[in-house]
Specification:
- With about 100 residues, this protein is of the alpha+beta class.
- It contains 3 helices and 5 strands.
- It is about 45% helix and about 25% strand.
- It is extended and about 55 Å long.
Length: about 100
Amino acid sequence: MAKSNLTRKDLARVLHEKLGFSYRGSSDIVDSTFLTMRQALLEEESIKLVQFGTFTVRKKSARRGRNPRTGETMEISKRSMVTFKPSKKLREKVNDNLK
């Protein structure tokens, strides 16, 4: 069974089919949603989606690392990264699908 990615276009199509919005309106809703989420993360705000999970920005400090190919030691600069923690219900449903 081939797995594919869920795209913004797929989300817009679902809104169009299930809620009856025009396809263009559905695309605008999806784009606005992701734009709002992106802006919140850039402002280092958490995004909590009930029964889905929480997106947070996590700061990682600088540290020493090693290039696995050459073995050379190098400095890894400090950075921020987005993390996702699924809700308990989502974790349970995902794990139920494995059984």
